[in-house]
Design a protein that fits this description.
Blueprint: E1 2-5, E2 18-20, H1 23-30, E3 36-38, H2 41-72, E4 76-81, E5 88-93, H3 95-104, E6 114-115, E7 120-122, E8 124-133, E9 136-146
Parallel strand pairs: 4-9
Antiparallel strand pairs: 1-2, 1-3, 5-7, 6-8, 8-9
Amino acid sequence: MKLILREDVKGTGTAGEIIEVKPGFARNYLIPRGLAYMATNSNIKIFDFEKQQKMKKVELQFVEAEKKKIELEKVSLTTTVKVSEDGRLFGSVTQQNISDLLKEKGFDINHRKIILDEPIKELGVYEVGISLAPGIEALIKVWVVKE
């Protein structure tokens, strides 16, 4: 049975490929899960249209990510923390703390998008990366000052 794959299927093929599979595999797994279409002329046209729509959506996301990058790189965050007498922080500044500070500035960034190798445990100025899209990363300054 000939099918057009809508998505990558491990061990079977990649999206957009026309493949030949056993009828049971097609009827019981690929087609019900929306992973493939029957390889007819009309379905090939539908797949091409879907592919164009996905390309436009990805392109739009990259444009929006570039705009957001420009806005974010203008931002400088300041967090006040409690410190001991010798200047060590009680606790640390984490990705979640930075995300909360960004929300206060009007940016809704998921804490998982913030690139921080390890939590900040000392006073100072740090450059923190934010992954906006594949290949697009904004750098913001985070000032950690004592309370």
